[in-house]
Amino acid sequence: MISQELNDRITRVGPGTPAGAVLRRYWQPAALSDEMARGLPLAVNLLGERLALVADDRGGLQLVPREAAADEAPSHSPDPSEIVLVKGGPVYPAQERNGVVFAYLGPDTPPSFPEFDCFRAPESHVFAFKGLWECNWLQALEIGIDPAHASFLHRFLEDEDPGDGYGKQFRDRAAHTNMPMTQVLREYPRPDIQVEETDFGLKIVALRHMENELTHVRVTNQIFPDAICIPMSREMTITQWHVPIDDENCYWVSMFTSFGAPVNKDVMRAQRLEEHELPTYAPKKNRDNRYGYNPAEQQSTTYTGMGLDINVHDQWAVEGMGAIQDRTQEHLGRSDVAIVRYRRLLRKCIAAVEEADEAVLPMRGQADLCALKGPLSNDAIAETRDWSGANHAADMARRAACPWDATV
């Protein structure tokens, strides 16, 4: 447990806040490229500021302040004709990358983009989408860096045919076997978790020891300050940001990157629009309808009884903690090691910004961002004695067969 003062320090994101100052020193997803089809200016609510995405004088993009009522809904999405820009306010640079518009709200010159797979892959091999969660960004991020939760929150009591799992997480086969990932998570629910600090944040390894001296190895990553990179299937990874709208609401913004065939964007978009409303990207299942809870389903099919979309499971878990999780009453355990390490890193970076020592921040200072590739993020099954080497070899094999340059 931590004090209320510390909880405020690491969660609140408005101008002048400690955590907000750290987040502003990184590019943040501001909108999807798809949203610009409605026309500009486009309302953007980011880090406690009410902004609008507009074209600049050079044909690029930038964010500027707009008029907004004090009680405006966090996901308010007015028609472009209704947006009134505020003159004389800050102007924030923006760049479009593979279906996502990123903005930099910090001081000085914006950093370069790292050479992560989601940015290196051609546009044909990346699909972007987002969804609204009514909670603070930090609890949204922390569920994504907890490898143990998937064995419980996303437990499927029946396994679907992996051949029908395109575009869905945990529906593929595990590595080179015929075992569905849902079966692995269900039958081996207590992973050993290792966390290593990296140039970009944290590398998180979950080891599920199986029979016959085999181990399932799942490598995920925390990309500082508010993103994760995780395996979706043998072919795809997900790079997902947890972007603060304000202190009590956030968007998850995902880039799905394929190492094989071009992404079928029509299928993936249709899958996600079954669960979300436009133009707000608010989920159709929410606390008002109990997240679609069905006790009969819970008895026979899923742990939560809330359908087969694991985003709904995560949404229920993080929103159920309240708008801002009360960490003064929590009791972290062994499986929360990545959360503990991340909070230490965040606190160190907050202190570094306050002391004007930004070289401490991951991917800031003298970091060579062009050298930051990957990150490795996959599932593998290997002999327990050499799980690390086998996992790396599996990633190298996937990259070698990739139709675009995925070398690291």
Q: What's the CATH architecture name of the largest domain?
A: Alpha-Beta Complex
Radius of gyration based on Cα positions: 21 Å
Helix content: 10-25%
The fold-level CATH name of the largest domain is Naphthalene 1,2-dioxygenase Alpha Subunit, Chain A, domain 1
Class based on secondary structure composition and strand pairing:
alpha+beta
Series of secondary-structure elements, N-terminal to C-terminal: HHEEEEEEEHEHHEEEEEEHEEHHHEEH
The end-to-end span amounts to: 40 Å
- Secondary structure tally: strands: 18
What profile does the largest beta sheet have? Answer: 8 strands, antiparallel
Poorly predicted regions are none
Mean pLDDT: 94
CATH class of the largest domain reads Alpha Beta
Number of helices: 10
Q: How many domains in all?
A: 2
- Report strand %: 25-35%
General shape: globular
Domain LigXa-like C-terminal: 103-373
Protein name: Ring-hydroxylating oxygenase subunit alpha
Organism: Sulfitobacter alexandrii
Keywords: Oxidoreductase
Quick structural summary:
Residues 103-373 form the LigXa-like C-terminal domain. The chain contains 10 helices and 18 strands.
Describe the structure.
The chain has 408 residues and is of the alpha+beta class. It folds into two domains: 4-26 and 111-400, Naphthalene 1,2-dioxygenase Alpha Subunit, Chain A, domain 1 (Alpha-Beta Complex), CATH 3.90.380; 27-108, Rieske Iron-sulfur Protein, CATH 2.102.10. It contains ten helices and 18 strands. Strands 8, 9, 10, 11, 12, 13, 14 and 18 form an eight-stranded antiparallel sheet that branches. Strands 1-6-5-4-3-2 form a six-stranded antiparallel sheet, with no helix packed on it. Strand 9 (192-197) and strand 10 form a beta hairpin. It is globular, with a radius of gyration of 21 Å. It starts with a helix and ends in an 8-residue tail after the last helix.
